[in-house]
């Protein structure tokens, strides 16, 4: 399809002629026409579209575009177009009634005698505070239509609002219907959920939550905030209101079997890990601990699963006592091999749903329970507290003036000791991560070689086609299991959507006229990868090169930094942004997150971020990402990401008798040098890039041959 603008004398508008060179279906016509129209509109004056009567009715009836002539001065014509939120609303007009019905159905439940609330809060999490969750638990996405991994929906009797952070502003704008108000968290003037509820609800309102979906800390903070207006927090533990309206369309719960994570990859057996945990119990004076984070349960037990997309975990709780450990899990997922593995480690099995009864039983036995209230859900804590109160009541009823009872049930509220132990990788885990990254690098080189050739040959590929092709290249690698998150394949303006995900029938073609951002990762049996590269298949603009170079300078600054032990990650964050700040630019996400070893791609407690509340020090053996970026809304996005291992730095001194740390690269894939503006780079930065590409060639070339090897040679030459 060709687009040919024609200017007429004395007419401030343009006629856009469209000609079709080959027969195509209505859906193909619609997709291609909109892709080309959007590209044209970014540089065209106001338009008058003359559409042939033979065009598909779907396009003629659509509201994807509204253009009008407008007054213009010396700067020339300007385009008036609908914002992306309105575009999405037009696309989804036919589905808005379905969304309305969801809200109406939910609100009808508010008046039910066993509910009786004025507002309901629907977070993103599951009962284990997971970032990625099973399809059947994606309640917020079902209710709101917003599919990002972070966000909170709040529904009152007459309003609906959704909060999300800067990674998802553009995505939420596209996906939310007109029935929802988007709250851009962290933006000046935007209230928090509790502030908003305090503002719009009359004093004394009842605000409902599912306590399984809130950590105890989050629920307590919410309770305190809304109490300022005498609102009451209602814990609806027996049912979830979204589940009540989801009904038969709700996906089935995950049912695939769990598996044993081989000791050669785990590096330590289950008995040793449980012994480590029990030593912490003894030191704290506790008699038991509840482990609820899914990656902590999987790590402790050297098990893996597939209950959650992109994360090799399974739904379960683990309660560890001095001489006993109990896994609460769907026993149908436990194979004979896994059962033998657990039995040999002294781990018993109980049904997943029986965890609350066990918590209650522990309290009635006088247990001193270790609870990490930042991750353990409010349902568990509330049940334990209620049982403690019953214990005290029974004790008082049975006591006499001559008897005094000592040592009743109690709780110690501390951060789980498992989180830090899991974050500091042992030698076997480090070796597995290094090996997985090399195989992943080979797959990526073969992929980029293929994609570059396809683009050069003018093959029409959508962002989704590209993501699917990358998956095929990775699947050829030994030990591949699945992707570690949904591939972010964003061409042009879509690259500016930080967590963009291409959707069939609604994504861009990947061409050679703009930047292409690809953020992807994989789960292998021995490790987890996460890498981002930004490329241009044509000629980048001077501005794009400057932006890319400043992002690269931030990436290099993080990679080269040396820092004293006990340094928290937020101290380093400024280094990644400094070059961007010099010209008034920035990005709306953290610079680095922790990464698990054959576990979750996002792992705590460590991070590198502007959020200075995380005081966790970076320690030897931790793995973090290094991913500064820059995003120009409705234009392009840039991000460069490698994974780094924290190591001891080789420095000539040890001031204060302390250890100094640095980073070792795990990711070895070329960075496109034609996007680098050499005039902005220091000699040291140029040396870093050449040295890095030398390492890429040395480590990855033995795994390649043919065209891929030639491509790697070309793209690792010194500049």
In short:
This protein is α+β, with helices and mostly antiparallel strands and 719 residues long. The protein is built from 22 helices and 31 strands.
Fold and architecture overview:
This protein is of the alpha+beta class. Helices cover 36% and strands 18% of the residues. The strands form 9 sheets. A 6-stranded mixed β-sheet has the order 7-6-5-4-8-9, sandwiched between helices. It has a 6-stranded mixed β-sheet with strand order 15-14-13-11-16-17, sandwiched between helices. Strand 16, helix 15 and strand 17 form a beta-alpha-beta unit. Helix 14 runs parallel beside helix 15. The longest helix has 30 residues, at 427-456. The chain starts with a strand and ends with a helix.
């Amino acid at each position: 399809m060709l687009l040919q603008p024609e200017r007429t004398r004395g007419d401030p508008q343009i006629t856009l002629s469209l000609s079709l060179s080959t027969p195509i279906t209505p859906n193909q016509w619609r997709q291609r026409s909109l892709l080309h129209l959007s590209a044209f509109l970014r540089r065209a004056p106001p338009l008058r579209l003359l559409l042939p009567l033979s065009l598909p009715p779907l396009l003629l009836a659509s509201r994807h575009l509204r253009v009008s002539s407008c007054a213009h001065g010396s700067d020339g014509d300007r385009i008036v177009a609908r914002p992306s939120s309105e575009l999405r609303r037009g696309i989804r007009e036919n589905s808005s009634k379905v969304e309305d019905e969801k809200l109406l159905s939910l609100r009808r439940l508010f008046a039910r005698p066993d509910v009786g609330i004025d507002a309901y809060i629907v977070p993103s999490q599951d009962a284990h505070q997971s970032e990625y969750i099973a399809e059947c638990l994606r309640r917020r996405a079902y209710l709101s239509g917003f599919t990002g991994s972070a966000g909170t929906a709040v529904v009152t009797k007459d309003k609906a609002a959704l909060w999300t952070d800067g990674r998802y502003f553009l995505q939420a704008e596209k996906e939310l219907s007109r029935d929802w108000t988007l709250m851009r968290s962290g933006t000046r003037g935007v209230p928090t959920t509790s502030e908003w509820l305090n503002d719009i609800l009359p004093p004394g309102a009842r605000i409902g939550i599912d306590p399984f979906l809130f950590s105890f800390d989050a629920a307590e903070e919410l309770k305190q905030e809304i109490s300022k207006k005498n609102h009451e927090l209602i814990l609806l533990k027996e049912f979830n209101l979204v589940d009540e309206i989801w009904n038969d369309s709700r996906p089935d719960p995950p049912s695939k079997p769990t598996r044993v994570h081989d000791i050669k990859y785990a590096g330590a057996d289950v008995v040793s890990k449980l012994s480590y945990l029990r030593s912490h119990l003894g030191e704290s004076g506790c008699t038991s601990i509840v482990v609820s984070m899914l990656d902590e349960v999987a790590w402790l037990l050297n098990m893996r699963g597939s209950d959650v997309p992109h994360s090799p975990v399974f739904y379960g709780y683990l309660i560890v006592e001095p001489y006993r450990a109990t896994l609460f899990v769907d026993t149908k997922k436990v194979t004979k091999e896994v059962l033998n593995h657990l039995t040999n480690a002294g781990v018993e099995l109980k049904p997943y749903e029986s965890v609350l009864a066990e918590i209650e039983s522990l309290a009635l036995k006088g247990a001193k329970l270790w609870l990490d209230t930042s991750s353990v859900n409010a349902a568990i804590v509330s049940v334990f507290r209620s049982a403690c109160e019953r214990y005290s009541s029974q004790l008082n009823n049975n006591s006499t003036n001559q008897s005094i009872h000592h040592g009743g049930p109690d709780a110690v509220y501390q951060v789980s000791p498992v989180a830090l132990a899991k974050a500091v990788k042992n030698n076997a885990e480090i070796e597995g991560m290094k090996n997985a990254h090399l195989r992943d690098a080979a797959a990526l080189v073969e992929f980029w070689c293929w994609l570059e050739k396809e683009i050069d040959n003018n093959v029409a590929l959508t962002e989704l086609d590209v993501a699917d092709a990358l998956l095929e290249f990775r699947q050829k690698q030994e030990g591949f299991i699945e992707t570690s998150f949904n591939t972010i394949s964003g061409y042009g303006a879509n690259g500016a959507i930080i967590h963009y995900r291409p959707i069939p029938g609604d994504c861009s073609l990947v061409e050679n006229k703009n930047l292409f951002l690809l953020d992807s990762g994989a789960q292998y049996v021995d490790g987890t990868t996460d890498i981002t590269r930004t490329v241009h298949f044509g000629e980048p603009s001077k501005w794009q090169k400057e932006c890319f170079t400043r992002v690269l300078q931030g990436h290099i600054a993080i990679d080269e930094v040396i820092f004293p032990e006990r340094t928290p990650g937020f101290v380093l964050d400024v280094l990644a942004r400094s070059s961007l700040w010099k010209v008034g630019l920035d990005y709306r996400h953290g610079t680095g997150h922790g990464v698990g070893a054959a576990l979750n791609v996002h792992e705590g407690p460590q991070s590198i971020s502007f959020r200075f509340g995380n005081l966790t020090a970076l320690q030897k053996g931790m793995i973090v990402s290094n991913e500064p970026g820059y995003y120009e809304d409705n234009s392009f996005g840039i991000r460069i990401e490698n994974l780094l291992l924290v190591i001891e730095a080789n420095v000539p001194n040890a001031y204060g008798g302390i250890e100094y740390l640095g980073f070792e690269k795990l990711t070895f894939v070329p960075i496109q040098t034609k996007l680098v503006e050499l005039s902005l780079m220091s000699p040291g930065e140029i040396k870093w890039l050449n040295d890095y590409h030398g390492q890429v060639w040395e480590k990855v070339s033995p795994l390649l041959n043919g065209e891929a090897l030639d491509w790697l040679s070309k793209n690792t030459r010194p500049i």
